[in-house]
Each structure stands twice: as structure tokens, then as C-alpha cells.
Design brief:
The structure holds two protein chains of two kinds.
Chain A (H helix, E strand, L loop, with lengths): L9 H20 L6 H30 L7 H23 L4 H10 L1 H18 L3 H7 L1 H8 L2 H14 L6 H15 L3 H6 L8
Chain B lengths: L9 H15 L1 H7 L9 H4 L14 H5 L10 E5 L5 E3 L1 H4 L6 E8 L4 E11 H8 L7 E6 L19 E5 H5 L4 E6 L2 E2 L9 E3 L12 E7 L6 H5 L23 E4 L9 E2 L7 H4 L13
Helix pairs in contact in B: 1-2
Classes of the chains: A mainly alpha, B alpha+beta.
């Protein structure tokens, strides 16, 4: 387990581009079935959520399993932001056919699109403030304050996913539940209870 | 002798189609046949389905509907009719009465297809059983058979699926009971052996695998309307000016248009306004959506 730590972060990047490579492959060989537009769009969105979920696991793993994977958190977050960006791009170009007026109206009017855009804006801000230079410039307190927005962005991303359905589908609901558990670990009350946080802090 | 689907020859279908064009006249036939639009392929029509009894994914019906037993099949027709009873598919849609109808299908999820159905006008079935004067609505029910329909084993929806039409909508010449497509018997995932097709309404109105038809004097409660009354109305006419609360209905994506196919404008009554708009004269379709 501890050997994982010694892997270079490039490994995360390499594995992280795999879903994209597979998607491009499936598109080119015609594996996507009757409606490739929908598949491309949905797979990119789902992949973004998976990476968000993975990035939220880093701290609980550190606390519970005492395995320090913190150096992998940045690439995981950047991958999530990248897939979210590609997801938006696929929506705008493939799904909406760049109908700008309808797109803008829909983003303003449809809660699931408004929420989705909000999530993307948060993720892009987090991505833009993730370089060492920016972190140094902001200082740890301000940087942490900004990056706590992921606690809002992650569940909203799944909410955005759920709102696009006519029924309550199992998979996003399960992911939302997992996310709720991961976010609960961030609550000071629970952290004190688990002894992760000094009583005085 | 019972006429099975294998007895229906392509020639017979071809002749029936010609008979339909000649019989109904240009006004009804030309737009109904959607001549300018290429039908979707059999592959597309049978691998992209909403048939929630077999799962919520678009390919779940194709994967799971093989287990459905469609022969023998009985449709129970009752309520305000002169000749209630249990009818076979051949009783309702005898092979020599089946016509081809190429219709646009517009899903409430803002995608669309063009489908060459085979079927009979619902009016011919209703006339056969004799509609009584008090009847104002027609209620339909899908098969409830949990051992063959996996999603019915879960409480995800209030099964069986129910739909309904006003009597004049049901009697309209565009409304058919379909028993096949592309000259073949209806594939299970498309609602075998007999389903409704109402081309000017969102797809969910066109209830599949029907086992019960009831003539009634009261507006029936339909599945989606009961589940989400704000999102799905009883009428559910295709209407680009009345959006689904969560998404726009102004445009649609034609399945099979390709990666860069973009969107096309959704037409009022799915393009069948010339034939059906008079059914709703004086109604506020933003209220009765």
C-alpha cells in the first residue's frame, strides 16, 4: 500500500486519460450505439464525477488508512475539471449544435443546466488556483478557503446529473450517498469524534 | 384459421399502403407518410427504446425484452362498449387490414425518429366493439408480468403502465394500433405484440404491449401524470412553445443524424397540426399540456 505513494503523479495522468482514449476509440469504431452524441456527453460527465469522488477520498484515506496520497489529489482534481470542460463542450457542440440563443436561455432557465454551469465555474476556478505559484501567492489559508468550494461543487454535480432524469436512477443516487459520507468526514463534529482534530482547534 | 404474422406477405403490405394513400386522400396521407424524411433504420428503432418495464436505459429493452411471451396474447376490451370481451391480436388487427404508416416520433426527452409502422386505425377496433354513447375517454393498460418484466419486480413505478386518450383523439384517423414495423412483426422492445401510436403526442402516450382497453366517461389517470403532474399532462401534445419544466421542447435531436447533426426545430403537433389542431380548438394548450 505504501508503495503507491512512490508512484509519480504522471501515472494518475496516464490512467486519467484512459477514459478519454476509450471514448475516442468507441466513437471511431462505432461502439457507441444508436445515439453516440448522448453517450459521449454522458460518459464525459460521469467521468468528471468519478474523478471528483476520487479526489474527495484522499483525506479520509490519509486519516483512516494512514496512507498519504495527497500528491495525487491535484491531478485528480484537474482531471475532474478537464472532463467537466469536455462534457460542456460536447453538450454545446454535439448536443445543442451551437444554438447559442437556446443554450444561453436554457442555462438561465433550467435549474439542472444552471447548476451544471455553476459546478463547472467552480471547478475551473479551483483548477486555475492549483499551481504551486498561485498557491504560494494566495497563502495556505486563502487557498484552503477557495478549495473548500469543492464540497459544494461535488454534490451539485451529482444533483445536476439526477435532475436530467425522469425517474430516480440508482447509480447517481449511490454516488451521491458515497459523497455524503466523504463530505461528512469534513464536519468538525465528526472529526473531533474520530480524534482527527485536536479538541482545542 | 388463425392468421399469423408470417402469413403477411410484403406484396400484401405494399398493396395495403397504396390502398391507404388512395383511400384517405392527400390531406391526411401526404404529411402522415412523412415522405420527405428518411425513416430511421431498423437497427436504430430497435436499439433505442424507452420501455421502463425492461429497465431505464435506452438499450435495456433490446437486452431484456426477449423474455416476453407475446403469443398467446389477449386484449381485454370493456367499459362502455357493446361487445366487451377478450380479443386476440388477429381479431383487432387482421393481417389483411394492416397498413403501413410512416410517422415521426417525438419523445418528451427532445429526441425524435421516423418509423414505418404497421397497424390498423384504432377507430376500426373501437367500431368493431361498438362504443356506447356515454363514452368520452379511452383508457389503456400495459401488461403486468413481473417474471418477464424485470423492472416490475421493483417498486420504481406504479405498475402497470397506464395511458389514455379523449374519444375524439382515439377515433382520429392518424391514431393506430401498431402490430409491426418495417414489414416485420413488432419487436418485443417496441411494444409487441400490439401498441398504440399517436404521432402528434409525445412518445410516452403511445403505450406498448397493451392488454386492456376501457371506454369510460371519465378522464383516466395516466402513469406519468400521476407521478409528475407538473411535468407530464394528460394531453401531452408535442408543443414547442410549452417547455418541460426541466428542459426546452423548442428543438429536438433526430436520432441517426450523426455526431454533428445538430438539432432541428420541433413542430407544433409534431407536424400533424393540419390534421389534428381542430381537436383542440378553443383550448389553452399551455394549461392543458
Amino acid at each position: 500500500m505504501h508503495r503507491i505513494r512512490r508512484l509519480p503523479t504522471g501515472v494518475v495522468w496516464a490512467l486519467g486519460t484512459l477514459p478519454l482514449v476509450l471514448l475516442v476509440w468507441d466513437t471511431l469504431v462505432g461502439n457507441l450505439g444508436v445515439d453516440p452524441v448522448r453517450d459521449i456527453e454522458h460518459r464525459l460527465g460521469r467521468t468528471a464525477v468519478y474523478f471528483l469522488l476520487a479526489s474527495l477520498c484522499i483525506t479520509p484515506i490519509l486519516r483512516m488508512a494512514r496512507v498519504n496520497l495527497v500528491k495525487f489529489r491535484r491531478p485528480l482534481g484537474l482531471l475532474a475539471a478537464s472532463y467537466a470542460g469536455l462534457h460542456l463542450l460536447s453538450w454545446a457542440v454535439l448536443d445543442m449544435g451551437l444554438l447559442w440563443s437556446q443554450m444561453l436561455k436554457d442555462i438561465a432557465k433550467r435549474p439542472y443546466l444552471t447548476i451544471g454551469m455553476g459546478v463547472l465555474v467552480i471547478l475551473l476556478v479551483l483548477a486555475a488556483t492549483s499551481s504551486n505559484a498561485v498557491i504560494r501567492k494566495l497563502g495556505p489559508v486563502r487557498w484552503r478557503a477557495i478549495h473548500r468550494w469543492v464540497y459544494l461543487a461535488a454534490p451539485l454535480a451529482v444533483f445536476h446529473w439526477l435532475l436530467a432524469y425522469k425517474i430516480w436512477p440508482g447509480k447517481p443516487l449511490a454516488i451521491l450517498a458515497a459523497m455524503a459520507v466523504l463530505l461528512a468526514f469534513r464536519l468538525p463534529l465528526l472529526q473531533r469524534h474520530l480524534g482527527w482534530r485536536a479538541r482545542s482547534a | 384459421m388463425k392468421l399469423s404474422w408470417s402469413d403477411v406477405t410484403p406484396e400484401a403490405l405494399f398493396l395495403n399502403r397504396r390502398a391507404f394513400i388512395a383511400g384517405l386522400g392527400v390531406a391526411a396521407a401526404a404529411p402522415a407518410l412523412a415522405a420527405a424524411e428518411e425513416p430511421n433504420s431498423f437497427e436504430q428503432i430497435t436499439n433505442y427504446n424507452n420501455f421502463y418495464e425492461f429497465g431505464f436505459g435506452k438499450t435495456d429493452p433490446a437486452d431484456n425484452a426477449g423474455a416476453l411471451t407475446t403469443d398467446p396474447w389477449a386484449v381485454e376490451i370493456g367499459g362502455l362498449v357493446d361487445r366487451p370481451g377478450s380479443y386476440s391480436v388477429a381479431d383487432l388487427a387482421p393481417g389483411n387490414a394492416v397498413e403501413e404508416r410512416i410517422y415521426r416520433l417525438r419523445c418528451v426527452e427532445a429526441w425524435s425518429m421516423v418509423i414505418p409502422w404497421l397497424g390498423v386505425p384504432l377507430a376500426s377496433v373501437l367500431n368493431k366493439v361498438g362504443v356506447q354513447s356515454g363514452a368520452k375517454f379511452v383508457a389503456f393498460e400495459t401488461l403486468y408480468r413481473p417474471d418477464e418484466m424485470p423492472e416490475q419486480r421493483r417498486n420504481s413505478m406504479d405498475w402497470p403502465y397506464r395511458e389514455g386518450l379523449r374519444l375524439d383523439e382515439a377515433m382520429h384517423p392518424l391514431t393506430i394500433l401498431a402490430t409491426g414495423l418495417y414489414g416485420k412483426p413488432m419487436p418485443n422492445q417496441n411494444g409487441a405484440p400490439i401498441r398504440l401510436v399517436v404521432p402528434w403526442k409525445y412518445g410516452f402516450k403511445s403505450i406498448k404491449s397493451i392488454v386492456k382497453i376501457t371506454l369510460t366517461d371519465r378522464q383516466p389517470v395516466t402513469t406519468w401524470q400521476a407521478m409528475q403532474p407538473r411535468e407530464y399532462g394528460f394531453y401531452a401534445n408535442v408543443n414547442p412553445t410549452v417547455d418541460h419544466p426541466r428542459w426546452s421542447q423548442a428543438t429536438e435531436r433526430r436520432i441517426g443524424a450523426g455526431l454533428l447533426g445538430g438539432r432541428q426545430e420541433t413542430l407544433m403537433f409534431n407536424g400533424y397540426g393540419d390534421q389534428v389542431a381542430q381537436l383542440y380548438a378553443g383550448m389553452d394548450l399551455a394549461r392543458d399540456y
